[in-house]
Design goal:
This protein is an all-alpha fold. It is built from 5 helices and no strands. Helix 1 packs antiparallel against helix 3, helix 1 runs antiparallel to helix 4 and helix 4 runs antiparallel to helix 5.
Amino acid sequence: MSGVFQRAYGKTNDTVVEILNYALTLEHLEAAFYKKANEAASSLIPTEPARGAIKLIGAHEAAHVKLLEGTIKSMNATPVSAPAFDFTAGGAFPNVFSDYTTFLAVAQAFEDTGVRAYKGRAGEITGGGDLLEAALNIHSVEARHAAH
């Protein structure tokens, strides 16, 4: 599936890799956030339908990481590593993984950021094709997460 990103119409591989690493950094953030939430699920997420939804969203984000890493490697480039994240925002949200309302607010901010990031960088993928289609597919998944 990573080959879907290999063709970058009208852009050099360097530019495409920069765009993909930009997206990968965001996906690392989201994947790490939901992984941590799912580890705290029984104490954080109050009901089973919500737990299942958060688990599914986390799986989507992990899949996005895998897809982007594979794509970047297939272009003979190096994917960015996952940085360390402070989900409390320097202490502004100390209860992000213990208070469901705070968790949902932060999750909404991350998902909205993802929607905007994919939309914002899509214009740099000229000529359409597989690369643009794949990016827009991830964009629509991020939008569904935000809506959820």
